[in-house]
Specification:
Elements: H1 2-20, H2 22-28, H3 30-53, E1 58-60, H4 64-86, H5 97-112, E2 114-115, H6 116-140, H7 151-174
Antiparallel strand pairs: 1-2
Helix pairs in contact: 1-2, 1-3, 1-6, 2-3, 4-5, 4-7, 5-6
Length: 182
């Protein structure tokens, strides 16, 4: 559990450093990006290693309905991540598509993984996402929403979302984590 918690703290600290200590981060200049990147890579390794080695004693079981809700939330998350790059119309309504995607993904995984390591991992990442949105909005006000992108961006976002979702579910299953229980 220690690796998992340290990984979450490193992840949060590396991402929130710029928001919580902007003057110190600015003094680091470009070197700050490298330090943040190394901390994020280390945090990912710690979270994966920590999560993978812990016993998964369920507090609640999987259910087909929860699996279905999880799949919908993960598709939404992938769509929002792709949308954050391609800028389709949804980005005129959602101010922080990447953080919204992360929160959708984490919520879905909390629903289907009712064990303590999953609650710590996915709940911790969701909490980081909520705090990040609050800090970003507080510091910079409300960033402008992007202009709608047109039908080519809409189609591209849907196609790329489908391809990424398929690849992710295949890799997820190949790694030994069931995608659905039905």
């Amino acid at each position: 559990m220690l690796y998992l918690v340290i990984g979450l703290l490193l992840w949060s600290g590396a991402h929130l450093f710029k928001r919580l200590l902007p003057a110190q981060r600015a003094r680091m200049g470009q070197a700050g990006r490298g330090v943040s990147a190394l901390l994020i890579i280390a945090s990912l390794w710690l979270m994966v290693e920590g999560y993978g080695t812990l016993a998964k004693v369920p507090l609640w079981g999987r259910h087909a309905v929860l699996d279905s809700i999880n799949l919908i939330l993960v598709v939404v998350a992938v769509y929002l991540m792709v949308a954050s790059v391609l800028k389709p119309a949804i980005t005129t309504r959602i101010r922080h598509p990447q953080l919204t995607a992360l929160k959708s993904w984490a919520l879905g995984h909390l629903l289907v993984n009712g064990d303590v390591p999953s609650i710590v991992l996915f709940g911790g990442l969701m909490a980081w996402g909520v705090v990040s949105v609050i800090l970003i909005n507080k510091q910079s006000g409300k960033p402008p929403l992007s202009a709608p992108g047109g039908s080519a961006r809409e189609v591209g976002t849907v196609v790329i979302t489908g391809a990424l979702f398929y690849a992710m579910t295949w890799l997820h299953a190949a790694a030994g984590y069931p995608v659905v229980s039905w």
